[in-house]
Write a structure and sequence with these properties.
With 169 residues, this protein is mostly beta strands. It contains 1 helix and 9 strands; from the N terminus they run H-E-E-E-E-E-E-E-E-E.
């Protein structure tokens, strides 16, 4: 009798597991980002004059979870085109506020031809053109505290203004 009861219990447990509906997983929301920016840069003490920052392109992707779409994680490739060429990456956490405004912070780094790495903070206004297409604009501050291109005991900074677009998939 015990064997039959155990077998029946196991059969009911298996049937319950197989009959249960599948758990629904969180869905990732992905966006593509392309921005152009330029501005001013400085640093190096009083002897260093403020000058024009590199004009650069930022091309990347952002990910958010559908349960919390205001928390966005992103990464991008940076390509500075003039007055000198450089390549780099950045990684950011972005907080979306009131559907049209976003604040972000993270790490930015130029890796070639030399290296400059430091924190980044940015603000962005998102103007909707279509349901999943936005024109973006806003200021950004990069501060470089580590790197082979950094003069001794110096902090370099860039104050940039970017204009771009964002497409949600």
């Amino acid at each position: 009798m015990k064997i039959i009861a155990r077998a029946l219990s196991a059969l009911v447990a298996c049937a319950t597991m197989l009959a249960a509906p599948a758990a629904s997983a969180q869905r990732w929301i992905m966006s593509g980002v392309a921005e152009a920016s330029s501005g001013v840069e400085g640093g190096g003490g009083r002897a260093q004059a403020m000058g024009r920052a590199q004009t650069r392109m930022r091309i990347g992707a952002d990910l958010a979870v559908d349960e919390s779409p205001e928390d966005i994680f992103g990464a991008a490739v940076l390509v500075a085109v003039e007055p000198r060429t450089a390549f780099g990456i950045d990684a950011r956490y972005t907080r979306l506020v009131a559907d049209r405004f976003a604040f972000s912070g993270g790490v930015v780094g130029y890796l070639q031809p030399g290296s400059l790495v430091g924190p980044v903070a940015a603000f962005e206004y998102r103007h909707p053109i279509a349901k999943s297409f936005f024109i973006t604009a806003g200021p950004e501050l990069d501060v470089f505290v580590v790197g082979t291109d950094l003069p001794d005991r110096t902090v370099l900074w860039q104050a940039l203004f970017h204009v771009g677009m964002r497409v949600s998939f």
